[in-house]
Specification:
- The chain has one domain (2-196): Metallo-beta-lactamase, Chain A (4-Layer Sandwich).
- The two termini are 30 Å apart.
- It has helices at 33-43, 63-70, 92-96, 164-174, 193-196; strands spanning 2-5, 16-20, 23-27, 46-51, 74-77, 107-109, 114-117, 120-126, 135-139, 142-146, 149-150, 153-154, 182-185, 191-192.
- By secondary structure, it is α/β, with parallel strands linked by helices.
- It has a six-stranded mixed sheet, with helices on one face. The protein has a six-stranded mixed sheet with strand order 7-8-9-10-13-14.
């Protein structure tokens, strides 16, 4: 499995292209379609879908264009499904004062689901707190954490659906995972899980 951060992603949000052989999956979707196309061509890979760690606007920014261009589905936790159709809930109107929405997700997942796209598989760990449906995607020795967990920080809880107590419970749950896992966060550089949790 190979992981590349592709960008520039909008609003400093990370966008990861995960490939295995000729199979590819996007984790979060903020990069322009043209940049995603170039990355796929470089890897000689076919995109099978987009998995978003949560439904905030900066993590689904270009997902409608990507779905239209590549004919692939969007995977999202069912508790964040409503965020796509409401500019307040996805935080776009909170920051910019205007509404913006996205098409519904084609695939909704839940805690413990295994998402298999081509030869790539991800296990869902539901970690609410940043949003109701915030989730971590586990694959091999990596964890795509979205905005649940940064390296040395956590996501905010003051936007729609945020809950500080839920986030703390999610972090406590994460502390039981192997510290050798590498965190690929929604913003910022990657790092080991043990370092990411060392402040909590």
């Amino acid at each position: 499995m190979e992981i590349s951060e592709i960008g520039p992603g909008g609003f400093a949000s990370s966008c990861y292209l995960v490939t295995q052989g000729r199979d590819a999956v996007l984790i979060d979707c903020s990069a322009p379609v043209s940049v995603i196309e170039q990355a796929l061509q470089k890897q000689n890979a076919t995109l099978h879908g987009v998995i978003c760690t949560h439904g905030h606007f900066d993590h689904v920014l270009t997902v409608d264009e990507v779905r239209a261009q590549f004919g692939v589905p969007l995977y999202l936790h069912r508790n964040d499904a409503e965020l796509l159709s409401d500019g307040h809930k996805n935080a776009f109107s909170t920051f910019f004062g205007i509404d913006r929405t996205w098409m519904p997700a084609e695939r909704l997942f839940s805690e413990g689901d295994t998402l298999t796209l081509g030869s790539l598989s991800f296990t869902v760990l539901h970690t609410p707190g940043h949003t109701p449906g915030s989730s971590i995607l586990l694959a091999e020795q990596v964890a795509f954490t979205g905005d649940t967990l940064f390296v040395g920080g956590v996501g905010r809880t003051d936007l729609y659906g945020g809950d500080q107590e839920q986030l703390l419970a999610s972090l406590k749950r994460l502390s039981s995972l192997p510290g050798t896992l590498t965190v690929y966060p929604g913003h910022g550089a990657c790092g080991p899980l043990s370092l990411a949790l060392s402040l909590f």
